[in-house]
Structures are given as structure tokens and as C-alpha cells.
Sequence to fold (613 residues):
Amino acid sequence: MKVLPDTSVVIDGRVSRRVRDGDFADATVLIPEAVVGELEHQANEGIDSGWSGLEELKTLAELADAGEIELEYVGRRPDAIEKGQAAEGEIDALIRDLAAEQEATFVTSDIVQSEVAEAKGLDVEYISPEVEDVGTLDVEEFFDETTMSVHLKAGVAPMAKRGDVGEMRFERVREEVQTEAEIEEIAREIENGAKQSSEGFIELSEPGMKIVQFRDYRIAIARPPFADAIEITAVRPLVKTDLDDYDSADELRDRMLERQRGILISGSPGAGKSTFAQAVAEFLNDSGYSVKTMEKPRDLQVGPEITQYTALGGSMAKTADSLLMVRPDYTIYDEVRKTDDFEVFADMRLAGVGMIGVVHATRAIDALQRLVGRVELGMIPQVVDTVVYIEAGEVHTVYDVTTEVKVPAGLTEEDLARPVIVIEDFETGTPAYEIYTFNRQVVTVPLDETEESEGGVDRIARQEIEREIRSIARGYVDVELQGSNKAVVYVDDDDISSVIGKGGGRITDVENRLGIDIDVRTHDENPNPGGSDGSTGTERGQVVTPDITSRHIRLTVDGAQTGQTVEVQAGGEYLFTATVGRGGDIQVSRGSAIAEELERAIDRSQQITVAGA
Fold:
């Protein structure tokens, strides 16, 4: 008996098992060189299936040495053109042709290969992929009822985030450090479990990084050179809530059922945003709406009626195009972070789909400001009409977003009327903010005097002065207004001469343009170094100077923040959340989407700041 397996069944390890079971006893097993080439390529790319297939070839060689089978390598390796057309089935066709030429039984675990081979008249044995019951994983033993995430790294004691939502503690699970061999074994068990069980799958597989979904766990496995050591991060939802568990539930239900909405669910990391989004998704589904999700990676814990989509071909824009054909009533987008995400969110919302996006923000208004510059200002209320801010697992603030043509608050001249985005407290109906264009600048003016003592006109004046001085100075700029026609500007020592200019000519030009007297001083002379708006330095964030190398962008921060989770901002706009390394720095690999946004901000001379998340 001659059998010729394809790549799929070699990876499964089913050929050697059939030999041991007696089905292929004394058979001549013909291994196509095309299969060897494909496995070698996968192994070189760091893909586990390649290593699994090579292990199976070693096992078959041992069985041949023991006299249980005859083993031959046949055919030729695919050329460059055939490799490039592998997705179109060129290598599969090469293997099928070889089975016909050798008059061998063609063995495969690929249903498409099986159907095509039968249509071609081959003798085919289809072995369906095995699905096994997988018990408790070793990584699950680090969890207890209060654990949200477990963090394992070679050479470091196991760590976990534990506690109530919004009050998490990052603490050691045990004092003994873990070896690389221990973590490799845990990682191998996770990956095998995801492949063998119907309860798991591999969400992402790239050299150096795998993301696995297994039951309720999302598990990231990082390896060198992507990480400096093998690391496993396993996360699970701590609680599953119902919309009735939240304040304002009745009003929010009525609002979402009234018509399809554009909603941003915002909050700081670990505040419970995704938990609330899951509750909203379940409520909408139970209310008779068609609900889908867009997630990368898939993280929301929702029922089987809600289909969870990821990035199609690595692009959420392609996913959106597909969903527009499906026409869901509501789509949950977790998370909306980069410019592309906001554009996709806006496109789907303007196409008539109800959209609910999850956004990192330290204040409710910050979530809405992320749209500024990414969506045309007048379209924002059509894209987002509701902002829900989550804090410590509770609904803290809900904003209603509308647009009016009016004179902005704080201004008096009728000819200053313009389109104004009005943000009102949903519960009380009290206006909280206005967003509008003034002197070609988009300004956000708080109407609650308890939050900021400046009036609308003062705030605009301060922003205009900051903008002018920042176009000259390289370092941090702070502005203090001292009346309607005078201000003090505080800059770094190195910037004094460039801001003032030769004979005071440059600052005089600024004064003439703005119609205000400006006194330039150093930060050492500032009696309120936390900022003229009354904020502390920590609230404003630490100004950092990026160091760009050929491979990384490095942000060095105060060593006291080592190990803390922080937000990186550019020009006051959120970019990403990161953890400060042991060396007191944050490293971003160049070429990544985050690095591209950071480099664009640097090119625009925007101030880069790091603030506690």
C-alpha cells in the first residue's frame, strides 16, 4: 500500500498515529518535497504548525528505522512562482498530481483538498481534524475569583491584577521566579489547547506574538525578538453585568431603542468599559436588534447570537465593508483608538448603522475630542450623539451631543454666531461644554465654572497665545492671563532668546497680531508651575523629548513612574496607553501604527506628554 499525505495531515500528526494503529502498517509513505518545503517555510517564519509538521516527519523516520513502514521523499520543491501562488492552490495541485503519478492513496485533513482530489479521480482518504476536550490549563491555576489578569515572564515572579473593578492591585502571586522552560511549557499547552479544542482558536499568529482565545480567556504570548523574554499575559472578564446593574439604565435603554445611535463608551484602563459594552450588546440583542462586534483581538464576552468579527485581511475598513452588506442594526466597535478606527466608525455611522465605540479617555469630554480633526466638526453630532463615561465600574457621566447655530457662551457680538456643538449633561439637561471654530482653531470651552475658572473668551485667548508661542519655542509653554490685554508667557531658558527675537522684534510681531501685551519669563519665575488653569503637573502630564533611533522611538520619563500605566499624548490628544519600563522609558517599535502616529505628531512639532492613566 502506498500513501501520500499532504501538508495538513502531516501537521496534524495523524499519519504516524495511523501507522501505530495498524491502518498503515507496512505501507510505503511518500512525502512530497513540496510538503517539506512548506513546513520549512512555516518553521522559519516562527509558525508553530511548521514545527509540528517537522516533528511528525522525524517520527515517521523513526518508524521507518524500526521497520514498520517504508519512507520515501518524492517529487520536487515548488519554485518561487508556485510559492507565490500558494494561496491560489498551486502547491496543493502539485501534491495532488504527485499522488496520481505515484498511484498512491491521497491522505488529507483539508476538506477542500479532499473534494478536489475526488473530483480528479484520485483514491482519497479524508481524516477529519480532531477536536479534543481540553481540561484546565496550567495558566488558570494562577487565577482566583478576584483576578482579572495574570502576567508571567521568564526570570520574574508571577504577577496578577486583583481586586474590584476600578480598584485593581498589581501584586505577586508567589515569590519564586519562573524559568523560561516553565513558561515555554505553559505556552505550548495554551497553543495546543486552542488548536485541539472547539472552545479555542488562535486569533493572531505573527513572528514573536500569538494571541489565543480560549474559553473566557484572552491570552497573549510574546517571544524574542519581539519581546526581550518570553511573556504570557492572560486576561479574563472579572464580572458579567446586565444593563439593569447600572445607574441611568432606564434612560439609556429608552435612548438606544428610540433610534439607532452613535455612542462612545469611555473611561480609563480597567474602569469597566468593555464590561458595560457587553451589557449593552446583550440588551440590544434581547430587544430584537441584529448586533455584531468589531474587535481585534476579540475580547467581549457575549452570547452566541452576537457574531464577533475581527480585522479582515488585517483591516477594519474591510470588515466594515463586509458588515455593511450584513446590515446589522448595531455594531460594537472595541476599541476605537487610531485615526483609521475613528474614520471607520464614522463611515459606518453615516451609513445608518447604530455604532457603539469603546474609547480610552480620562474624562468624558476627552472621548469626544478624539473626533476633532478626524471627523469634520459639523458632522460630529451625526456620528456621536451620546457619550457614556465609566468610572470604577459605574456610569459616572452621560452626555447628550447636539449642534446649534448660536453665539457661543461668553461671547456677545451677534455677528459671532456660528455652528456650535453643545454637550449637555444627559440627566439634568445642563450644558457642560461647547465646541466651535474660532480664528480657524477648534476650541472646547467648559461651561461649568467649577471645573475651570476661565471664561470662554479667556480660554480662547490663552489657546491662541499658546499656539503662537509654541510655533517658536521648542520646549514647554505656559500662559497666564493678567487681564483683557496682558499675559505672561513662561518658557524654557533655552527658548527665551528665540521667543523674544533680535531687539524684541519677534515677540512684538506676536503682540501686534494678537492685540495683547506679552511678558516673556522662564518657568523658574512661574509662581504657579502646575499651570495657569490650576492643574498640577501630574494632571497636565510630564513633557518628554522623543529619542528616535533606527528601530525605536524612546520616551524617557521620571524614574518614579517605573512600572506604572501611563497615557502618551500629543498636543493634548491621546495617542496610546503604555507601561513604563524598568529603565524609566517607553519604547515604540518603528513601523507600527502607534509609531507612525507619534512620528506625525513629532513632525508637526506637537508637544509630547506622559500622564498617569
In short: The mean pLDDT is 84. Residues 350 and 383 are 6 Å apart (CA to CA). Residues 541-612 form one domain. The chain has five domains: 2-126, 138-235, 243-446, 456-525, 541-612.
